[in-house]
Amino acid sequence: MSRAARRTWSGALAGALAAALLLSGCAAGPAPTLASEPAPLPMACPAELPAGTRCLGGRDRLGAHVLIAVPSPWSGVLVLHAHGGPTLGEPRPERAVEDLQRWAVMVRAGHAWAGSTFRQGGVAVRAAAEDTERLRRQFVEHVAKPRRTVLHGQSWGASVAAQGADMFGAARPYDAVLLSSGVLGGGTRSYDFRLDLRVVYQHLCRNHPKPDEPDYPLWMGLPAGGTMTAADLSARLRNCLGLGLPSAQRSDEQARRLKVLAAVVRIPESSVPIHMDRATFHFRDIANRSGNRPVFGNVGAVYAGSGDEALDREINARVPRYAADPEAVRAFAADTDPQGRIGVPVLSLHAVNDPVAFVELQHHFRGVMQRGGSGERLAQVYTDHAEHSYLADRLYVVAVQQLLAWAEGGAKPTPASMAAACDASCRLVGDFEPLPLERRVPARQRP
User: What CA–CA distances, in Å, run from 394 to 1, 83, 109, 304, 420?
Assistant: First the structure.
């Protein structure tokens, strides 16, 4: 199916979801008991799913759109999905449809799949984990009791899954956890580099904010009342760095600034737009949630790598410095930082050259799991992809197979065991060891 056709189908299916939620009689309210969750209603399945699949959808009592797919025959396994992002604003049914389309391989492999849009947008990890667990209960109540349940978190959703497996672990609702391309440094470690991006960009470009605009601390993302749009931000990036233009059309100065920015912040040039977007709009969401107290700081961070020592010294001398607020950091950590207290097998997949979630986050997460007493229950497997959002169909199928076998008393997955069951598309790396996160993101003073 073409991308345009997929968007059309996604929109149509989202409309069906919206109609289903109206019929389901949902309303905002306090956290419900299991029995108070409305039953999801039958609806058409995306074309990517195999014939005979049963799809159900609607909206839960707290406002999250949900979508469920059960193939025929069914393996008895439920893959409970926590999506990446996070998205901002009100939840949209299209998000659940897009997630099911992307992860249709799970249904083609014979597993049921269930995904939630979460009841709210923004960087709220524990709330998203609650929404995901509520969907599992809804599945058990109204669809079927799975033989096994795999909690799958993708990207930012990996932090949701890691947090949820800890939060609800005492009841053992999940048999295993799959984390793919995970943002696993917690909020207090995963986003430091985006503040670095903002301050270095502002030193080079001076247009976010512009000289004639109100000044504000860059950890805020945008000032209170700011009306910048994504298109506005893209225009500023194009003006300063030539982003959005063919490389041959960039001026020498635009090309130089882009090269310096990417080198100092240690990100690919191609990923500057997405990280600037997050360092603008997600930072605004985080600042709003923290009561406009800084959860990020860069005091003590030493910036280097431009290829010009004099420029490095100038950057370090002139970029603004911010100290994080201790209370704001503690509150943010309580919501976003995994504790590593997971009582079931965890398999983490990560591309060595992931342009969005640094592979060095895996080094940090392993330490978290070890300190939380779950180090032996973590398997980490790497590929040589340079992708973030999706790696390979066969890789995910094999990952679930071996993760379930491990959960049922079999051997812990390894790169070798997965390679033996995989194909060339998996691009597994057998001897990779990620460096500490501080080798990628400059160390700094912390409260």
Answer: 19, 20, 10, 40, 12
